[in-house]
Amino acid sequence: MLPSPTQLAQTPRFQVKREAILGAAALRFNEQGVKGATLSGIAASVGLATNSVTYYYRRKEDLATACFLRSIAAFESLAAKAAHEQRGVAARVQAFVLEHARLLADIDAGRQPPLVSFSDIRALPEAQAGEVFTAYTAMFRSVRSLLKGSETLHLGRDDLNARAHMLLSVALWTRTWIVRYETDEYTRIAGRIGDLLTRGLAGTGADWCARDAERAWQLASGVDSTSEAFLRAATVLVNEQGYRGASIDRISARLNVTKGSFYHHHDTKHDLISECFERTFAVMRQALSLAEDSPGSGWSRCCAAARALVRFQLSEQGPLLRVSATSALPEGPQRDRVRTTMRRLAERMTSVIVDGMMDGSIRPLDPAIAAQVLGAAINAAAELHRWVGGANAENVADLYVRPAFEGLLCAGAAGA
């Protein structure tokens, strides 16, 4: 008698091969997006025939779902380990960041299999997406529970949700840049991330929001209204569906125009997405240029730049293109240019932080890591409404940006 599928799933050989497939799929999905990866490509990367993969997962969407659930389970485990820290909220946050860094080190050293990032969850069909989002929401709540304690009794639900979103986003962003360091440095880097998250950047006498000078900056994309509509629609769809999921049909439908109208303004989808990146970069350059050239301390100028960018994200002009969208760009010169530009913009934020360290308004810290933490918060602001329905351009500075600068235990929005 042949063994049943349940019996096969319990055998070591079945488990080993399934883990190999999940690890290979995670790499492919991270590199090519859910829409771009193929079962045949995943199978070839581990030396299997396609039907060997379909024996475990009949469709690519089933395999992607398994990869997402596997990553969610890993983060649930990190939160569970950190929850045992008894010394308070700050210690739990630092433990969560440290455990995540250890996991990344194990993955990069080959001791653990790769995990898929969460950037392409919305590219799943509705049925699978529902299952994954339910699991992701439960994981989010586990992370949020790390922030609950006597030190945070002053914070309301919206404040806690906003800060949990920031904590999780900083952890997820870390995957994209920590590879610049040696794996044996990851835990040291985690210590600095945890310190920034819990203590913030403020130096002696730094004032969060004495004035809102950046409201007069008027960040804008610099394109005409018709092009702006196409670019914004494409940006929203790329953020939701990835590069390959943002089809011309979907972009046209979002604007209620014909494909003919699309091609009247753009030769190809590739050209449009390239313009979306340039639009995002133009807005970021405006904010950073104003921060570099405006009067005031480094702290006040850095705060102003972050507030202006996050307000733009939640305004009618927003959002900006998520950094994770680069993972689904086709391999080639464009992907390289986009990533180079992002690194350079991070360096410009680093420079403003250094100005604050030099004038004493920002405390001594690692400016490169601080720029990455702030970049993660700014980038993730486009998703804030999923956890805080009432977040808007008027309240987001105190609700969300302030904790990035003063630490996750600072005053809440109501008390700002």
Task: Provide a descriptive summary of the structure in words.
With 416 residues, the protein is mostly helical. The chain has two domains: 67-201 and 379-391, Tetracycline Repressor, domain 2, CATH 1.10.357; 213-364, Tetracycline Repressor, domain 2, CATH 1.10.357. The chain has helices at 5-9, 12-36, 39-45, 50-56, 60-83, 89-108, 126-145, 157-177, 186-199, 225-245, 248-255, 259-265, 269-293, 298-314, 333-359, 367-380, 396-406. Helix 2 (12-36) packs antiparallel against helix 10 and helix 8 packs across helix 17.
| Overall pLDDT | 88
How many structural domains?
2
The helix/strand order is HHHHHHHHHHHHHHHHH
Low-confidence stretches: none
Distance between the termini: 70 Å
Number of strands: 0
Beta-strand fraction estimate: under 5%
| Count of individual helical segments | 17
The share of residues in helices is 55-70%
By secondary-structure content and strand pairing, the structural class works out as mainly alpha
For the record, what is the CATH homologous superfamily label of the largest domain? Tetracycline Repressor, domain 2
* CA-based shape: globular
Radius of gyration: 22 Å
CATH class of the largest domain: Mainly Alpha
Name some characteristics of this structure.
416 residues; mainly alpha; Tetracycline Repressor, domain 2; 2 domains; 17 helices; globular
Short description:
With 416 residues, the chain is mostly helical. Helix content is 66%, strand content 0%. The model has no long low-confidence stretch (mean pLDDT 88).
